[in-house]
Write a structure and sequence with these properties.
By secondary structure, this protein is of the alpha+beta class. The chain has one domain: Jelly Rolls (Sandwich). The protein is 38% helix and 23% strand. The protein has a four-stranded antiparallel β-sheet with strand order 1-8-3-6. Strands 2-7-4-5 form a four-stranded antiparallel β-sheet, with no helix packed on it. A hairpin with a 7-residue loop joins strand 4 and strand 5. The longest helix has 40 residues. The N terminus is likely disordered.
Length: 176
Amino acid sequence: MKADSIWGNIFRYGHRKESLAEILQNVPLFQDLTTKELRILEGLVHIRAYQPDEPVFVESEPGAGMYVIRTGRVDIKLKHRSEHPLVLAELETGDFFGEMALLGDTSRSATAVTREASELIGFFLPDLEEIINLHPSMGAKITFGLAKTLADRLRYTNAQLREVWEIRGANETTLG
């Protein structure tokens, strides 16, 4: 498993231009939606264009929603109290990020910056709330997909931390 695979989307696209519905269907949050539900979702998402090195969002600012990379590349960085940010993930077409903001009043835990000109698909908390109110079954599918995604990422983070602690413990044993 590559270092940033939990941040990425395991489904990679071919060379042909994917429709918006096809891109969204490959995102785990939306993979259980029907064709009709995907059309509803297409009408709610927001397409945004970014220039190279443009922040999508900044660490500690309020979060509004998530993004799917339609084209381009985005770095997720941890900048807090550092002049040399730590790159947590290097994302590309089909990857998604920022989904924790769909849980409500939360601040961003990292900064997202484009590496090149990028087109992103935004899905925001008010969009999710509208779906939940107007299409409860669809809202439940998306919310369950969100819960599964966050659980997968938490398990991955726990495994990474376990490895760091095991290495640290082994180093202390050999040094001590």
